[in-house]
């Protein structure tokens, strides 16, 4: 059951769906708080149904190819820094009437809508290891109704990794992801929705330096291309959900893939930590 409802309604309807033995495909952000999501996941667990959120880009063939590069110790090395950004300039009608700016419907605003993608990308690059602390960036923009319209944050891991993200309803359409390792760099500027539907690309640079005259790179970056074989990422998301449901029908509740819920929960944890940091004056917030 696909639930494209306002976030404030997710707890009620996702829980009811699970209790009716319906598998749950839930739009992001999946909940207002981690506590609400825990109730949804508990209902899915108790009723032996699959949970998945609607983050579509992770199902694109490009994502698997990027994972191969990040996992290559020779070409990429150890991950050290990640940067992500998703912004779009919403029209005045959106800022006035859209569900995503109404505190009783989607109180997380741009953080929950656009920030979800950036945070998920960071966690994906970090192999879903949670940061130790999160600090919101001063200068966030909040509407007169108390909904976040633009914000950013830095994330810090115990092993020294760091990441930053920015999200906004107020600035030009931008969606980049950069992951920097000790031996290489991955970059792309359309990580959520590709520039072209039939294929998508990303840039890799490995063991790069300057020539003797310091006038050019050696070796230069290369473009990697991934086709979709006629199946867009949104369809692949549905196909993966259907595959998981099929396995459960054959093998029973023991075949439920709980990893999807765990990834959603980690994303929600970071989002809520960012919001808490903003509300407390941009102080560091530890993630348990």
UniProtKB/TrEMBL annotation:
<dbReference type="Pfam" id="PF01408">
    <property type="entry name" value="GFO_IDH_MocA"/>
</dbReference>
<feature type="domain" description="GFO/IDH/MocA-like oxidoreductase">
    <location>
        <begin position="65"/>
        <end position="186"/>
    </location>
</feature>
<protein>
    <recommendedName>
        <fullName>Oxidoreductase</fullName>
    </recommendedName>
</protein>
<comment type="similarity">
    <text>Belongs to the Gfo/Idh/MocA family.</text>
</comment>
<feature type="domain" description="Gfo/Idh/MocA-like oxidoreductase N-terminal">
    <location>
        <begin position="5"/>
        <end position="52"/>
    </location>
</feature>
<dbReference type="Pfam" id="PF22725">
    <property type="entry name" value="GFO_IDH_MocA_C3"/>
</dbReference>
<dbReference type="InterPro" id="IPR000683">
    <property type="entry name" value="Gfo/Idh/MocA-like_OxRdtase_N"/>
</dbReference>
<dbReference type="InterPro" id="IPR055170">
    <property type="entry name" value="GFO_IDH_MocA-like_dom"/>
</dbReference>
<dbReference type="GO" id="GO:0000166">
    <property type="term" value="F:nucleotide binding"/>
</dbReference>
<dbReference type="InterPro" id="IPR036291">
    <property type="entry name" value="NAD(P)-bd_dom_sf"/>
</dbReference>
């Amino acid at each position: 059951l696909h639930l494209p409802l306002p976030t404030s309604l997710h707890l009620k309807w996702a829980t009811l769906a699970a209790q009716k033995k319906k598998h749950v495909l839930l739009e992001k952000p999946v909940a207002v708080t981690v506590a609400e999501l825990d109730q949804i996941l508990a209902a899915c667990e108790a009723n032996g149904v699959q949970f998945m959120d609607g983050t579509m880009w992770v199902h694109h063939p490009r994502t698997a190819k990027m994972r191969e590069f990040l996992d290559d110790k020779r070409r990429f090395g150890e991950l050290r820094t990640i940067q992500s950004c998703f912004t779009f300039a919403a029209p005045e009608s959106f800022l006035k009437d859209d569900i995503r700016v109404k505190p009783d419907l989607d109180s997380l605003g741009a953080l929950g809508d656009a920030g979800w993608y950036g945070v998920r990308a960071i966690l994906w690059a970090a192999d879903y290891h949670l940061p130790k602390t999160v600090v919101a960036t001063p200068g966030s923009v909040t509407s007169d109704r108390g909904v976040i319209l633009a914000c950013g944050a830095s994330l810090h891991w115990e092993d020294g990794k760091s990441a930053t993200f920015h999200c906004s309803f107020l600035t030009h359409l931008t969606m980049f992801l950069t992951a920097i390792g000790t031996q290489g760099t991955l970059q792309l500027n359309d990580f959520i929705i590709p520039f072209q539907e039939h294929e998508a690309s990303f840039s890799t640079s490995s063991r790069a330096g300057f020539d003797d005259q310091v006038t050019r790179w050696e070796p230069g970056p290369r473009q990697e291309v991934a086709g979709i074989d006629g199946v867009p990422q949104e369809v692949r998301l549905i196909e993966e959900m259907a595959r998981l449901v099929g396995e459960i029908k054959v093998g029973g509740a023991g075949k439920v893939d709980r990893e999807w819920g765990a990834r959603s929960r980690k994303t929600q944890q970071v989002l809520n930590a960012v919001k808490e940091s903003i509300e407390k004056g941009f102080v560091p917030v530890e993630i348990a």
